[in-house]
Amino acid sequence: MSGHGPAMPMTSRKSGPLSGTAEVPGDKSISHRALILGALSVGETEITGLLEGQDVLDTARAMRAFGARVTQHGPGSWTVTGVGVGGFAEPDSVIDCGNSGTGVRLIMGAMATTDITATFTGDASLNKRPMGRVTDPLALFGAQSFGRRGGRLPLTLIGAAEPVPVEYRLPMPSAQVKSAVLLAGLNAPGQTVVIEDEPTRDHTERMLRGFGAEITTEETEAGRVITLTGQPELRAQRVAVPRDPSSAAFPVCAALMVPGSEVFVPGVSQNPTRNGLYLTLQEMGADLVLENPREEGGEPVADLRLRASRLKGIEVPAERAASMIDEYPVLAALAATASGVTVMRGIKELRVKESDRIDAMARGLEACGVRVEETEDSLTVHGMDVVPGRATVQTHLDHRIAMSFLCLGLVSAAPITVDDATPIATSFPAFEGLMAGLGAQITRDNR
Ligand code: S3P
């Protein structure tokens, strides 16, 4: 929700070895999609392991506003009784997507080819983020949008009464834009085609297939071509949400940094469109073993076993960026403790996340005494034996900036404070308790 209460500073301090099992929450991307596809299906979809972070709760509320019945039965256990493709009702009030770019962009796609009107808003972070990247392709289907300057929220979307299918080449690597186009294509007659130059997370394609849509993906010289046949009858499914590799990244990186740590993280998605951080950590010399690889809920998962490791800086291949786009903040924090220099290129998209993450990490690391260089699309971090810390870092309503610096504070010489830890609840409400359970010294400052 967009109402942001008082800021809650949090401080992390040098900690003894972290140990134990870190059961991280369900995947955020898959949780949003399970609710939205459940709402577009006929019958009752049963979801287990749903992330109950604020971003996903906001999407659940939105699905109710569009006419679906969404019920929580127990922790992570939800059902969605859908209205079918093209069955969305017109919401009678503004749809507030809070902090969530994924929520608002996917929902706009899902309603854009139905003859209804909806108005969307979000918090101060979301209302600054570009929506033209979604409303431009939605206009090709026949939808109209009226937003603030630059297409920003609040924004009203008038769904196409007579949608036409679309062929669209993504101008930037964005799974949110790809997914918005595919969800809009559901209620357009004929075939909607999306072409991407670089593969981005493919949960929408996998789940659409699982819900009964006809959808194919072809690797061609022109890129990855995804073809969806419109107006399928989606059938309710059971969805078991795997644990989120982007949330796992925090206890994983913390355990690698804090000397003597040994941590086990079970059941984490290792979808190849999401596992770039884990490849990178192995290249940096991490003692990270993937055990028991298996398939759960249509996604490859594995258990992660790791021990604190002396890491070396590397150049992260730019073509890996899409598969670890949300992990650069915590990688930048970790790189500050590695030997040598870590160079991260091809990361321009980080400038339009919940905050400008290149800027937020660069300023925060500098405040902690770390040398960094940035360009429009890169960040270079010079590792040091001991990060001084003794800083208060601005998090700009960005959960991942907050968690990254709280991890770094576990090994810095003096504590690191983040100015506001409340956004952590958008993706990882149990972060504080989980990290405390491993032995991390992280405290609220207003106790
Ligand atoms: C997401 C896609 C990515 C990612 C976000 C979740 C998704 O955003 O950063 O956290 O679930 O589709 P972009 O599409 O902007 O790259």
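^ shikimate-3-phosphate complex. The longest strand covers residues 287-296. The chain has two domains: 10-26+242-444, 28-166+174-185.
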